[in-house]
Write a structure and sequence with these properties.
Blueprint: E1 8-10, E2 18-19, E3 31-33, H1 35-46, H2 51-58, H3 62-82, E4 86-88, E5 92-95, H4 109-117, E6 126-133, E7 136-137, E8 146-153, E9 156-164, H5 173-179, E10 184-186, H6 192-200, E11 204-206, H7 213-222, E12 251-253, E13 258-260, E14 263-265
Parallel strand pairs: 1-5, 3-4, 5-12, 6-10, 10-11
Antiparallel strand pairs: 2-4, 6-7, 6-8, 8-9, 13-14
Helix pairs in contact: 1-3, 2-3, 4-5
Length: about 270
C-alpha cells in the first residue's frame, strides 16, 4: 500500500490566481502551478527562506520541499520564456488557521488578526458582514476600510456594529472576517483570490450587490437579495479555486489531517 501524501502547510492562498501574457494571439495552453508549488516560490524566492526553513514552515521533509520548488521553478520558467498563461490551483495542502503555531514564525499576522478582531457569537446566531461606506455597500472588497456586521437570530437582526479593518491589506480581509466569525459576506466587486480565501474559511459570498447596506441584509433574510455570484473587480483576473476534497480542483484539508487519494484521513 502506498504511503499517503502529507498535506503541505500553506500560510494563505494566493491573491491572484491567473496571469495572462499581454499578447496571447496563439492562445497557448496555460501552465498550472499548484498552491503548494506557489508557496515554495513565495517562501524561498520572495521571503528569502532556505529550503530547510521552507520545509519546516510547510511541515514537510526538506527533500520534498526541494522537489516541489524545482517543479515550481520549471513551470514558471516555461510560462515566462514561452509566453504561456500561468494559473495557480490544485495541490495537496492544508491552510493555516493562525490558531496553532506550527510554522515557528515570531510574528504571525493571522494570530495578530485573531487577537484584534476575535468576536464571540452565540450558537444560534448567524453573522452577516457587509463591505461598508456611508451606509452603502462598498464596491471594492480589497480596499474596504469598514465592515458592518449584523447578528441574526430566528431570521431577524438583533444587533449590528461597524468594524474598522484598521488598514488591513487585501490579503488579510478574509482573515478579519474569519476572526469576526462571519457566516456570510455581502459586497460589490471581489477578486478571484479573495473569493477563494473566503471559501476556504467557509464564508458564503454574495457578490455584485449594491445600494443600502441595511436594506441588503433585510433582502437577504427575505430571500430576494439581488447579487451576482460571478462579480469580480475589474482589476482582478482568475478562476475560482476548488476547495473540496476529491474534486478536480484543489484539495484543501484542515490541520492535523493527511491526504489520501483526495480525501482527508487522520
Amino acid at each position: 500500500m502506498s504511503r499517503p501524501t502529507k498535506c503541505r502547510m500553506i500560510c494563505h492562498l494566493p491573491h491572484t490566481l491567473e496571469f495572462i501574457p499581454a499578447k496571447n494571439e496563439e492562445e497557448k495552453d496555460p501552465i498550472t502551478l499548484t498552491v503548494d508549488e506557489y508557496e515554495t516560490i513565495r517562501l524561498i524566492d520572495k521571503e528569502g527562506l532556505t529550503q530547510e526553513q521552507c520545509s519546516k514552515r510547510m511541515q514537510i521533509a526538506r527533500t520534498t520541499a526541494q522537489k516541489i520548488y524545482d517543479s515550481a521553478r520549471k513551470k514558471t520558467a516555461i510560462a515566462l520564456v514561452d509566453g504561456h498563461p500561468l494559473k495557480i490551483e490544485g495541490g495537496e495542502y492544508r491552510l493555516c488557521n493562525g490558531r496553532n503555531r506550527f510554522c515557528g514564525m515570531e510574528k504571525c499576522f493571522k494570530q495578530e488578526i485573531l487577537q484584534t478582531f476575535q468576536k464571540s457569537k452565540g450558537d444560534n446566531i448567524m453573522r452577516i458582514a457587509v463591505t461598508y461606506e456611508n451606509g452603502q455597500i462598498y464596491q471594492h472588497f480589497g480596499h474596504t476600510e469598514q465592515f458592518k456586521v449584523y447578528d441574526v437570530e430566528d431570521g431577524k437582526i438583533i444587533a449590528s456594529e461597524v468594524v474598522s479593518t484598521n488598514g488591513q491589506g487585501h490579503g488579510a480581509l478574509a482573515e478579519v472576517l474569519n476572526a469576526l466569525k462571519a457566516d456570510a459576506l455581502i459586497c460589490g466587486g471581489i477578486g478571484a483570490g479573495a473569493q477563494a480565501a473566503l471559501a476556504s474559511v467557509g464564508i458564503k459570498l454574495y457578490g455584485g450587490a449594491n445600494g443600502d447596506a441595511d436594506a441588503a441584509v433585510e433582502a437577504l433574510l427575505a430571500g430576494n437579495l439581488a447579487y451576482n455570484p460571478d462579480a469580480q473587480c475589474n482589476h482582478h483576473h482568475g478562476e475560482h479555486h476548488g476547495e473540496n476534497c476529491g474534486g478536480h480542483g484543489g484539495h484543501h484539508h484542515e490541520e492535523g489531517h493527511e491526504c489520501r487519494h483526495g480525501h482527508c484521513v487522520d
